[in-house]
Design brief:
This is Transglycosylase-like protein with SLT domain. By secondary structure, this protein is of the alpha+beta class. The chain has helices spanning about 10-15, 25-30, 45-50, 50-60, 65-80, 100-105, 125-150, 155-165, 170-175, 190-210, 245-260, 305-320, 320-325; strands at about 85, 95, 100, 270-275, 290-295, 325-330, 335, 350, 370-375. The chain has two domains: about 5-210, Lysozyme; about 245-375, no CATH class.
Length: about 375
């Protein structure tokens, strides 16, 4: 917990939580909690290793706290580094949730033998940390939920939990909405910007690590015209502005434009790019004119809502008609599929990035665009 980064944050969350663990709240809070399923291809490797502990503890101790929020919250705090330590005016914060020694002691953990804690300290052991810290964070969630319910403030309880964690629950209780703005709850401009940025960061990670919601039906879409020409080298014009495409790749691009419309604002596909030198990846099909990328939303942003559905429609349509279109492989939403790839834990198999791309990044993991590579005819 890094509340000490904000002047006057204090440990209100620690002091109030025991007073608000009211058993009668459990049923109502659990039934109103948002639910999210996990995109296993996207979550950090360390989170996946300890997912059994996360799901067991949340189910038993805090059913209103979705596991995807635990994973996102910890990622925002420590990047899932169990040994993370950051110094602050209270001495420092340690472990996955970045709790200071007072917080950790309140959660039932041992005193630290030194600052930073030694490598064998319980606060730095992932499973032990999760078993103690998740119920501690849940106390903040229930503190926030009770206050927001009683006052009618519009902030969701999970966001209130985040305010308590980063700034102290006094910021929640003394602000008009539950999220402090500059000039209220002892929060100056820097404080307000820190809180808002922290909430945005966790929200982005929740979206990134949530289920992709696909694939979807494409029964309403027309089948493509099969490619029957003779494939050759990169000789066909690239309508997306690149150097050239192979005839088979140009055919795929034209069929996508026919079925999904020309890329542009308001269209199912907002932007497209095919030939590119890709100097950072000499093995790329882009530099051979055998690959195209299709963006249903803004480049660099995780596709959501209608844009996510549009991307799944394109990926599913390409898979359905892979033989007619000579599709070599498709990458989308952290998943890789080719005609010879059996499904493994979802659509295709997890995409690894090939040692070139960061699969947790919106573009590197192909969460913002559908990549297609076209084989030779």
């Amino acid at each position: 917990m890094r509340a000490a980064l904000i002047a006057g944050g204090g440990l209100v969350a620690v002091l109030l939580a025991p007073l608000l663990l009211i058993a009668t709240l459990l049923g109502s809070l659990a039934t109103t909690a948002p639910t999210s399923t996990l995109n296993m291809a996207a979550i950090p490797a360390t989170a996946a290793q300890h997912l059994a502990t996360i799901t067991a503890v949340t189910a038993a101790e805090c059913p209103e706290l979705p596991p995807v929020w635990v994973i996102a919250h910890i990622d925002a705090e420590s990047s899932w580094n169990p040994a993370a330590f950051s110094r602050d005016r209270n001495g420092g914060a340690a472990g996955l949730y970045q709790l200071n020694e007072a917080n950790w002691r309140d959660a039932g953990g041992d005193d630290w033998a030194a600052t930073p804690p030694p490598a064998d300290a319980d606060v730095l052991q992932p499973d032990e940390h999760l078993r103690r810290a998740i119920p501690w964070v849940c106390a903040n969630l229930r503190t926030a939920a009770k206050h927001l319910q009683d006052t009618g403030k519009p902030t969701p309880a999970l966001d209130g939990m985040l305010v308590c964690h980063i700034a102290g629950c006094s910021r929640l209780t003394a602000s008009a909405t539950g999220i402090p703005v500059a000039g209220e709850a002892g929060c100056d401009r820097r404080c307000a910007e820190l809180v808002a940025g922290y909430l945005d960061r966790v929200h982005d990670l929740v979206a990134q690590y949530s289920s992709t919601g696909g694939p979807v039906t494409v029964d309403d879409l027309p089948a493509p015209t099969p490619f029957r020409g003779t494939d050759a080298a990169c000789t066909a014009p690239d309508p997306t502005g690149g150097s050239c495409l192979t005839p088979a790749t140009r055919h795929v691009h034209d069929e996508i434009a026919r079925v999904f419309g020309t890329a542009g604002a308001g269209a199912p596909i907002r932007a497209a790019g095919c030939w590119d030198e890709h100097a950072w990846n000499p093995a790329s099909d882009h530099s051979r004119g055998r690959a195209c990328d299709y963006f249903p939303g803004a480049p660099g942003e995780f596709a959501q809502g209608a844009e996510l559905r549009n991307g799944w429609r394109l990926a599913t349509w390409l898979r359905t008609h892979a033989v007619a279109l000579k599709i070599k492989y498709v990458i989308w939403q952290g998943r890789y599929w080719s005609p010879g790839t059996p499904d493994d834990g979802g659509w295709g198999r997890p995409y690894t990035g090939g040692g070139v791309y960061d699969v947790r990044d919106a573009t590197g993991g192909h969460f913002d665009h559908v990549h297609i590579s076209v084989g030779s005819a």
